[in-house]
Design goal:
Layout lengths: L2 H25 L7 E15 L2 E15 L6 E2 L5 E2 L10 H30 L1 E14 L4 H4 L7 E5 L2 E2 L14 E9 L2 E9 L8 E10 L3 H31 L10 H14 L1 H19 L7 H13 L6 H31 L2
Antiparallel strand pairs: 1-2, 3-4, 5-6, 5-10, 6-7, 6-8, 8-9
Helix pairs in contact: 1-2, 1-5, 1-6, 2-4, 2-6, 2-7, 4-6, 5-6, 5-8
Length: 349
């Protein structure tokens, strides 16, 4: 698979699915959607179906569903005024449903893709009582005594491991030690002397990883559980990345178009499984990013809708339009800065 195809599939499908969530949530509540676009700017292709003009537009950095009543109307003098139809006539829960529809669809797609990966690759299950050697450092004690990548350490000095980190216990006592190692289905003893003159054994290791192959429902449940466990760290990563961007410290925790192209190229070279994994990660990222309370994003709109309801509609339409415009400009500037930092990171400053 080439990079361009991988990029089109990942971004195109992710954007389409996100906007489809808004579209379906609106249409199910009887709200018109005059236009639906993948991409911004001048339309390259367009067609009419089910009362909506479906567009494929020039700039593939997002998309939109033009939902009736979400944008303010304009008075004869050109001033914005509150819309009285479509989205604005929905109850609070209906508005929230429309606004979170895109996030929900991105999450569903991510979970389906992750479930497929788990079905093909298996669900990783760490075996804490076995230490697997991942890497042996050149010139280290581990290399001298014959440890090899792939070795499974089962016991230290005849004592079965309670946890894989028990390998470090050999540094607690100088003198002779032995590892009971499983290598290529055969159990061997690796003997060595720890004299305390080195900092470490010279291995990188972790728990043994076994792979289970559940059915689709089991894999889907695992995808939901693992992503929900991962979301807090993703939020922290976004926060650190955005803070770094704003103060001029490039961070690999957040990437723009150039970074996504680079990741798509690496995934395309690795094969379909890597492309699907990247697509799942991007959909999770889109869901989290869109929930940030930044004007112009779904999270910002959610915050404004809730505040407007709590204050009895005191946020005037022109103020809401201005807040969303400022948020949109901020997002464009943020994208430009991230793109510039991507270029510095990947091609040299």
């Amino acid at each position: 698979m080439n990079t361009a195809l991988a990029l089109i599939l990942i971004l195109g499908v992710s954007i389409f699915i996100h906007e489809l969530g808004h579209y379906l949530a609106a249409r199910l509540q009887g709200v018109r959607v005059p236009a639906f676009s993948v991409g911004f700017g001048p339309p390259l292709l367009r067609m009419r179906w089910a009362g909506t003009e479906w567009r494929l537009s020039l700039i593939p950095l997002g998309g939109y569903a033009e939902i009736e009543g979400m944008a303010p109307d304009f008075a004869p003098d050109g001033r914005p005024q509150a819309a009285t139809r479509g989205f604005m006539r929905l109850p609070l829960w209906g508005k929230l449903l429309v606004l979170v529809g895109g996030v929900v669809m991105n999450l569903l797609l991510a979970w389906i893709l992750m479930a497929w990966v788990f079905g093909v690759q298996g669900v990783p299950k760490p075996v804490e009582q076995r230490a697997q050697i991942i890497e042996v450092v050149e010139g280290s004690l581990a290399q001298e005594v014959g440890l090899q990548p792939g070795d499974l350490v089962l016991a230290v000095d005849g004592q079965p491991l309670a946890r894989y980190t028990d390998l470090n216990k050999v540094k607690e006592r100088t003198g002779p030690h032995r590892f009971t190692v499983l290598r290529d289905g055969e159990t061997i003893e690796v003997r060595f002397v720890w004299d305390g003159t080195r900092d470490n054994l010279g291995v990188r290791y972790g728990p043994q990883i076994l792979y289970e192959h559940p059915g689709f429902l089991g894999a889907f449940a695992t995808a939901v559980e693992s992503s929900l466990r991962f979301l807090p760290e993703m939020l922290r990563s976004f926060t650190r990345g955005l803070a770094g961007v704003l103060v001029g410290r490039p961070s690999s925790e957040i990437v723009g178009p150039v970074g996504i192209v680079n990741l798509a190229g690496e995934a395309a070279r690795s094969g379909v499984l890597a492309v699907v994994q990247l697509a799942a990660l991007i959909n999770l990222s889109l869901a989290v990013f869109n929930l940030l309370p930044i004007p112009g994003l779904d999270g910002g709109r959610l915050l404004l809708v809730v505040l407007n309801t709590l204050t009895g509609g005191r946020i005037r339409p022109e103020h809401e339009a201005l807040i969303n415009f400022i948020g949109f400009v901020f997002l464009i500037l943020l994208m430009v800065i991230i793109t510039f930092q991507d270029v510095q990171r990947f091609f040299g400053s």
